[in-house]
Amino acid sequence: MSIRAQGFTGRHMLLTTVAFFGVIITVNVTMAWLASSTWSGLVVNDTYLASQEFNKNAAAMKAMTASGIAGSLSIKGREIHYDIRNNNGSPAAVDDVTANFKRPVGDHEDFAVALKKLSEGHFLADHDVATGDWIVEIVAKRGETLVMHQAVRIDTAETDQ
């Protein structure tokens, strides 16, 4: 019986190469799938300008939050409701409300709708909203003065449609 020392053969090299590239391909496919299935970033026209304005916008949002004015968005079927209240619970004095519906990724379904004033602090619009994730940017003004600028993330599959 003869024991032969085989050493590193061509078969070993083939298996090592296949294992190496198999791991790399598996990791890349996994990372690509995770990135495309979970990413919820926003689409902006100019990333440089968006980054420059971020701190200014964040400070404005903090000041608006400190004012105590709060808005509430709801969607039922084709009806888009928005209620806005002062910090004491009374309806806020607002003339115009616009809701900008944006998909988290892509802009081919984005739309804007002006809500009609039903009464002080209560607004309504009639518009189809496709199911899925939306980021709704709501701008409420009294004359030319900005009263509320709010962004709400909603999933219309979870609302009463």
From TrEMBL:
Membrane-crossing segments per the record: 12-35
Keywords, alphabetical: Membrane, Transmembrane, Transmembrane helix
Taxonomy, superkingdom: Bacteria
Entry keyword annotation includes Membrane: yes
Alphabetical list of InterPro entries matching this protein: FixH, FixH_proteobacterial
Pfam families xref list: FixH
Protein's name in the database: Nitrogen fixation protein FixH
Organism the protein comes from: Rhizobium paranaense
Lineage: Bacteria, Pseudomonadati, Pseudomonadota, Alphaproteobacteria, Hyphomicrobiales
